[in-house]
Amino acid sequence: MGWQVARSANPHFFKCVPAKVISMGYTQSEYLSVLTHSPAEAVKALAEAILPELGDIKVIVNRTGLVMLPYTDSALGAVFHLGEVLVSEAHVQIGSGAQGYAVCAGRDLVQALAVALLDAALTTGIETARINAFIDAQARAQAESDDLLLRKVEATRVAMETF
Amino acid sequence: MYVAAKGGEEAIQQAEKLYHHLNGEVTREQVEAIRDHLPYLVDRVMGEASLYAPDLAALAIAQSGGDLYEAVLLLRAYRSTQPRIAYAAPVTPDELLTVRRISASFKDIPGGQILGPTLDYSHRVLKMDVLDTLNPPTSLQNGHYHEASEETGLTPADRPAPRAYPAVADWQRAQGLMAASPKHESVDPADIPDVTSDTVLFPAPREHRLQALARADTGGVLALGYASMRGYGLIHPTVNELRLGYAEIMAKHPVTGAQFSAGRARVSQAEVVTSDGSKAGLSIGFAATLGWNEVKIIAASTLDLEMNQPEPHPAHTEEFVMYHTEPVESSGFCIHFKLPHYVTFASSVDNIRKVIATFYSSESKLQPERAEAQS
After folding, report:
1. Which is nearest to A103 in space by CA: B49, B48, B84, B55?
2. Is the CB of B263 less than 8 angstroms away from the CB of A104?
């Protein structure tokens, strides 16, 4: 099974296959990427705020674990294991029966739980406008952060001369 | 011979307390300061531990008082308690959010040269005034850059740099300077050979070699790589391309199959090339690691090239390099010699006493001169 990862028109996102638009123009791949990159405390606060709307919550998985990161050798093309990344994972089911899932870099189990709850809420259409407003703001902030970093990187472009 | 040692429990407890007393208390603030202000040290520990976890690496550094081998051991020990829950989608270099990309082989490479964060062309002078003032902090949270509250003096360009760059090697291949890259079928990450679970046999599959170099001891690969550079090797390396950047950790939703980024990890990679003057053109070596560690990846990619030679120097064979640059095994074997070896040492002393009694005691009939004459 090969992985297919291609870029979408918005350079901030990796548009992943299958890419299904679920929420106000965001694919699930895109909004999960924004939520996992957002400040943990802000995501937790949003999930806490919509919690009463979600009904009975069943936590299927909430744990820390390792994700192996394969890397491609640009010399001879081999794909090898670069090392593992510590992540927190959450898989939940809300009252409507919808399931939500998240993996976040780091060991913050509550952050993963919060993202998974927001995923379930978006999947089933709960508090969509409120969550999308949050995603919009975070996506904008993240894009601005990357833009600023890359403009600072561009300032280090060098034209080498030989004598 | 190893024997169980008994006793000294009170002394052992006091020794540990003294260790912590002399190192000072470990606090959350201290750990956060290490994570935010010593990122290259944190990167080095994460790379050698083969575990990307900045908070825990900073904790390991603080808890070990900065003893890096101890910190790597702590992180590897923690890693062994965690289940591997998934494999991320393979990262390809042209997907990296690249912040540094240089070449020493060609000055005009496609996409240009970006110095990025580096001290390569800076004066190395202690900033004594720092001792009297506080510097504004900068940090990366979830891989995103956050500007310090005070001005850093850095002037951003009007337009952003590209997020990613084409490979210099591809450009060289197009010019016929390098053999075409072998075709590789897409691979299920779970099927990639893994040194953490496989028996390592030689010649090792390339996947084992590159994984071993990625988690190798920085000082170990530098020592062996530097030996090559000084003339004990068979090649003269030129850095074809060096990159620092952020790799997205692409996870998969178990219900819908959607792939998403769970965060970013700092990674670095280097290619070195050499020419043997043949029609084959340039030969290429490669290495990459978690974290930004330029010394390690340049030395490791040099060793990759050395290991490809038909008859490398004995210290540059695959088996020698892979076995002697493993940080936990080598440091562990080194420090095990300080643990009780009473039985083996007592045996050696017994033998010495027997020799003395046999050849040197006044009652001995076998004097050394006679013993030599007999031998």
Report:
1. B84
2. yes
